[in-house]
Write a structure and sequence with these properties.
With about 70 residues, the protein is mostly helical. It is built from 2 helices and no strands. The protein is elongated and about 50 Å long.
Length: about 70
């Protein structure tokens, strides 16, 4: 993924805010991956798709904001 254009003119505060969102989303996905891996190692056929889907959507929103620039507060 290339660096989006909006970053060139972004403020430090905007960059810190989006970095925090990305870090949170990646941590959630990592925790889901660890839990699913442990589940499969134990032979469990079910994987908690409810929270995984939620975290994937959250990560997707964060990545969209990374590409499009931070949402401007009104």
């Amino acid at each position: 993924m290339k660096t989006p254009e909006w970053i060139k003119n972004a403020s430090r505060e905007e960059l810190v805010k989006i970095a925090e969102k990305l870090a949170d989303a990646l941590e959630d996905l990592h925790l889901d991956a660890v839990e699913i891996h442990e589940c499969f190692k134990q032979g469990c056929a079910e994987c908690r798709s409810d929270f995984t889907a939620c975290n994937v959507l959250k990560a997707g929103r964060a990545l969209n904001e990374w590409c499009d620039g931070p949402e401007k507060e009104v």
